[in-house]
Every structure is written in C-alpha cells, then in structure tokens.
Write a structure and sequence with these properties.
Layout: H1 2-20, H2 35-49, E1 53-54, H3 56-63, E2 69-72, H4 76-81, E3 83-84, E4 88-89, H5 97-103, E5 110-114, E6 119-120, H6 135-145, E7 150-154, E8 158-159, E9 167-168, H7 170-177
Parallel strand pairs: 1-7, 2-4, 2-5, 5-7, 6-8
Antiparallel strand pairs: 3-9
Helix pairs in contact: 2-6
Length: about 180
Amino acid sequence: MKAHLIFFSCLLGLTMTQAENPVIGQKIPNRLISYEGFEKNVHEVAKIRESRRLTEAQFLQKMSEPGVILLDARSASKFQLRHIHGAVNLSLPDFHEAALAKIIPAKNTVVLIYCNNNFENSPVSFTDKSISTALNLHTFVSLQGYGYTNVFELGPLLDVHTTRLPFAGAEVKEKSSR
C-alpha cells in the first residue's frame, strides 16, 4: 500500500510539473528579449572595458574636459544621498533610447561611470553589491548595447573620506553642517 502511495505521488508530481510548465526545454519567443544579443554585448565589452578603466587621477582629469557626461546609474534615492559633484542620474532600470538621448547628446560623447562598488565607508549611499553583479558592469554593457562608444569607468575602490573626487548630496550636507 505504501509503495502504491509513493508511486501515485510521484506520478501526480510529474503530471503537475508538466502541467505547470508545459514548455520546459522549448524556446519561448519574445522579439523584445535577446539573450544572444546580451551575450554578444558582454563579450564585446570584455574586449574594451579593461582599457577604459581609469585611476582616480585619470577620472578627475576626464571630468574636467568639456562635453563629458558623468553618469550615475544608481537609484534616485541613493543619488540624492551622495553622488560625485556634476553627475547626472539615470537609474539603470530606466535606461531606454529616448531617456539616454536626453542626457547624452551623441553616441560618441565621452561618458564616465561609477557605482556602489567604487566607494567604501558610506554604507547607506554606496551599498556594496556582489562583485559579479557590480552596477558598473551592467551600465557599461547597457551603454555599449545602446551604441555609446566612449564609455569610461572609475576603476579603484576609494574611501569616501579620503578620495579627491568631490561629492554632493544630502549626506554630504549633513556632515558639513555638524
């Protein structure tokens, strides 16, 4: 009797699995999603990204050049707390052709990016992310995917208290008013 119950339970489980997801192993078409395109972008970025990572001094120098866009792709709430002075904010989930075109005038504009994982000792405004999911990686790949060809990334991990990069935001104002 016990063996029959186990057999029917397994059979029922198999039947329910097939009913819940009848297309296991089949490609589900969606003309607006391309994993192959994403993979292609990642491989293309891997070839150029390392040569586009800048030291703190190089990043500061690039920030002073005319026409450069300093892009912060973190959430608006984190941006409002603390960001590099002069940065514009467009959160990564809000990236689309028109939104990017509003803040980056041309595809060959020099764009500087930074993320949470570039700064330490500011755990609220710069929350650490898993190293393999750092926002810079996604931002770089996404900008490349939208056709932006002059993207540069802040490379090192810097302490917010000792970096030469200038900050702005509510968190900075709080500390200066104490």
